[in-house]
Write a structure and sequence with these properties.
Layout lengths: L2 H14 L13 H12 L10 E6 L2 H8 L22 E8 L7 H18 L2 E6 L4 H7 L6 E11 L5 E4 L7 E2 L5 E5 L2 H4 L6
Parallel strand pairs: 5-7
Antiparallel strand pairs: 1-2, 2-4, 3-4, 6-7
Helix pairs in contact: 2-4
Bound molecules: flavin mononucleotide.
The site of flavin mononucleotide has 14 residues, from strand 3.
Length: about 200
C-alpha cells in the first residue's frame, strides 16, 4: 500500500468510529487489547509525565462488576442499558497515578481514550468512552489501590449496531429510531471552522 492510501485509511478509521453500546458476545483476543493499550502508551503526554495506567478487564465475572457501575446513553429515554446478550466483553479502565502531582492529567487521559478508540476501530472493534461511572464502587469492585483515581472506562466489543450520523439541526441529543438504529447529530464543518478570520 502506498503512503497516501495508508493516510486515507487512518482518516477513514477516525471518521467511521462511533460510540458503540451494543456488542456481539465474541471474545477479543488479549493481543488486540494489548495493542490498544500500547497505542495509549505512546500517546502525547504533557511534560512527558506519563501519569496513566490501564486496567484491562475481560473475565466475565469482572466485566459484570464493571458493568454495574456504568451509566449509558443519557439522552435515551426511558433509561437504557445494553441487554444481557449485548454487553461489552472487555473494558480498558484509564487510571491516573497520584493525580495531584499533575495538573494536565485529564488531557493526557482524554488523548489516551481517543487513541484506544481509534486503535479499536482499526481492528473492527466497537468502543464507547464512559465517564458516568460510580467510581467509588468500581474502585472497590476491582481492588484498585487508593493512589490511583479512575478517569474513564472504555467499553469494548465487536459491534452489534452501526449508528449513523445526522446533520445537527436544533438538538445535540442522539436518538434511536423504530428499528433501534442510533442517530447521532453532528455540527457541520462550515459551522465550526474559522479560516483566517472570524
Ligand atoms: C468524555 C466523554 C464521556 C462520555 N461518557 C459517556 C457515558 O458515560 N455513557 C455513554 O453512554 N456515552 C458516553 N460518551 C459517549 C458520547 O455520548 C458520544 O461520544 C457522543 O454521543 C457522540 O457520539 P460518537 O462518539 O458516536 O461520535 C462519552 C464521550 C466522551 C468524549
Amino acid at each position: 500500500m502506498n503512503k497516501k492510501a495508508e493516510k486515507n485509511e487512518i482518516y477513514n478509521i477516525i471518521l467511521s468510529r462511533r460510540s458503540i453500546r451494543r456488542f456481539q458476545q465474541k471474545k477479543i483476543p488479549m493481543s488486540i487489547l494489548k495493542k490498544m493499550v500500547n497505542a495509549a502508551r505512546l500517546a502525547p503526554s504533557a511534560a512527558n509525565l506519563q501519569p496513566l495506567e490501564f486496567f484491562v478487564v475481560n473475565k466475565k465475572e469482572l466485566c459484570s462488576k464493571v458493568f454495574e457501575t456504568l451509566g449509558w446513553a443519557g439522552y435515551i429515554k426511558p433509561k437504557w442499558t445494553p441487554a444481557a446478550n449485548e454487553r461489552p466483553v472487555a473494558y480498558i479502565i484509564i487510571l491516573v497515578k497520584n493525580p495531584n502531582k499533575n495538573p494536565w492529567y485529564i488531557r493526557d487521559a482524554s488523548i489516551a481514550a481517543a487513541y484506544i478508540t481509534i486503535a479499536a476501530e482499526s481492528e473492527g472493534i466497537g468502543s464507547c468512552i464512559l465517564c458516568k461511572i460510580d467510581k467509588e464502587k468500581l474502585q472497590k469492585n476491582l481492588d484498585i489501590p487508593e493512589e490511583y483515581i479512575i478517569d474513564s472506562v472504555i467499553a469494548l466489543g465487536y459491534k452489534a449496531e452501526q449508528p449513523v450520523i445526522e446533520k445537527l439541526v436544533d438538538s445535540v441529543e442522539y436518538w434511536r429510531d423504530k428499528k433501534d438504529v442510533l442517530h447521532v447529530p453532528k455540527r457541520s464543518l462550515d459551522e465550526i471552522i474559522h479560516i483566517n478570520k472570524f
